[in-house]
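Human: Here is a favour to ask of a fellow structure person. Comparing notes only helps if you start from a blank page. I am asking you to supply a protein in sequence and structure-token form. Write it directly below this note and I will take it from there.

Assistant:
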Amino acid sequence: MKVLVVFCHPVRESFSRAILDRCVADLSRAGHEVTVKDLYAEGFEPALSTEERRAYEDVGADRHAIAGEIAALKAARGLLLIYPTWWYGLPAMLKGWFDRVWLPGVAFDLDDKRGISTHLLSGIDRLMVVTTYGAPRWYIRLWMGDPGRKLMLRGFRPLLAPGCRTSWSALYAMDQATPAKRARYLETVSRKLALFRP
């Protein structure tokens, strides 16, 4: 299976990087064709420019600056997102990737009569999110309502294949996680990669 891994963390020695390395090794060992988009390492420009916003709904607009991102997204059958949750949501870099790449004509269509048409990315039938939180689970889930999870599984998932299988894996209270807890979490993530089996 072709799996696109989108990784977003600015610090090379972060635990998120350890998660990435583990996932790529496990997926490759399982025979998947893995493409990694390391947004910080690649110098991805997250800001939607004035010109891009003006041409946002024009599916014929020049999109050469993000052609590689679009091609990788459209070629994938599985999508794995690895990032830390900051201020209850996506890092700005990753949010910018969605802003600039998941465009009309790529991820959805806009129609004057029907509104939004989804499933342009219907080739993607697996979505897995691996994230970390500084706050404890009770605070994120009960008090905040876990907005990041809702964004991914209720907001972006409908743009993928109907019946797209999903997996959400979060390490809460990351700031207090012991080495043993981090090791156990990596094992949990490895098991959840079974989502990408045909």
User: Anything to note?
Assistant: Helices lie at 15-29, 50-54, 67-75, 92-101, 137-143, 147-156, 179-192.
